[in-house]
Structure formats: C-alpha cells, structure tokens
Amino acid sequence: MSKISIIAAVDRHMAIGFENKLLFWLPNDLKRFKALTTGNTIIMGRKTFESLPKGALPNRRNIVLSSNPNLQCEGAEVFTSLESALNNCRENEQVYIIGGASIYNQALAVADELCLTEIDSIAPQADAFFPEVLPTIWHEKSREAHPVDEKHLCAYAFVDYVRK
C-alpha cells in the first residue's frame, strides 16, 4: 500500500483558506511543502488545482479529484474518487494529500501521517477548515518551532503526527 501523508498549514482555529487562497504567506512553509512533495504524488481537489498559479506542480505526479469524469486538467490525472485515485498509485508510492477541506476530510481515515504547519495566529477571514486532529488517533512525532522573523509575520511550527 502507498504511504499516505496529509500536508496542510492551519491557524489556531484549524482554518486553511479563504476564497480558495492560502491564509498566510510563510516562505519556509512553501519550501517545506516543495521539499516533501517533489518527486512524489500529490492529490488535490479541483478547486485546489485551480488555485495553483501555474497549474500542475512540476516534478510531481498531479492527481485531481472531481465529480466530473470529463474534467481535463493540463498536467494532471483526474479521478472521480479518492479511493480510485489511491487504487491507481503504486505500492511504494509516497502520496501527499494537499487539499482542500473536503479532500482532507475524506483522506483523514486512510492517512498514515499528518505534516502540518501550525500557525500561531488566527486568520481574519476563513471559509475552509482542516478536520479535528484527535489525540486518540494521532500521536505528535516531531515539532520544529519557528519564531517571527523578517520574512514570517507569525510564529509557526512544523508538526508531524503519526497514526497511533
């Protein structure tokens, strides 16, 4: 079976986006995202794909989930369900679920790990949220805290969780 990781940046209220945009600009979060996902498979919903400024992300297998089986996304494969997308992944493939909210909700039950950037702030507006990370299911494996600096207006931490 593929290893399935969920990757997201969340604020203190577990908010992840507003009007199909990221809530915070954190260059180190973007660098971590690129470092983890490059060379691997990323699975996302249609709206997340449409939010990517240049379309499909390079050096990754891009998979888009859509209820429309006729949807065409340049540089990406389209599947109508998370299950069918995962069934089309190789046994040793590293898969990252990159959003949005409904895809995270579906993937939480099958994920092996969570790679979260926990932002020590509350977004002024949010309309998309990450599901609750239950301590009965998830164990914090590592935490790397970062203070405010000239490029990051909020303190944040890279936190990895594994299924208990």
What does this molecule look like?
The chain has 164 residues and is α/β, with parallel strands linked by helices. It has one domain (3-163): Dihydrofolate Reductase, subunit A (3-Layer(aba) Sandwich). Helices cover 18% and strands 34% of the residues. The protein is built from 4 helices and 10 strands; from the N terminus they run E-E-H-E-H-E-E-H-E-H-E-E-E-E. The longest helix is centred in the N-terminal third of the chain and has 11 residues, at 27-37. 32% of the residues are buried. The mean pLDDT is 97.
Question: What's the structural blueprint in terms of helices and strands?
Answer:
Layout: E1 3-10, E2 15-17, H1 27-37, E3 41-45, H2 46-51, E4 61-65, E5 76-79, H3 82-87, E6 94-97, H4 101-107, E7 113-119, E8 128-129, E9 138-146, E10 156-163
Parallel strand pairs: 1-6, 1-7, 3-4, 3-6, 4-5
Antiparallel strand pairs: 2-8, 7-10, 9-10
